[in-house]
Amino acid sequence: MTLKDTALISVTALAEIMRVAHIAAGSTRQSFLFYSVAALLYLALTTVSTTAFQRAERYASRGVRRA
Questions:
Q1: What is the C-alpha separation between 9 and 13, in angstroms, rounded?
Q2: Measured at the alpha carbon of residue 3, what is the angle toward residues 43 and 60, in degrees to the nearest 5?
Q3: Total-model pTM
């Protein structure tokens, strides 16, 4: 399972993270800081969700023969 499998969730999360970063960057004029934090947060969220989905898929496919 890849990030592509959870595209709707990731797009929604990215839009929300970027909206908050845009608001924070506009009010403090430190755009690089807020967009960098947003990028790292998104990377962490996608890494955790990808790992969780891989484990869930492995758990669900126990006992299934592979061709």
A1: 6
A2: 120
A3: 0.71
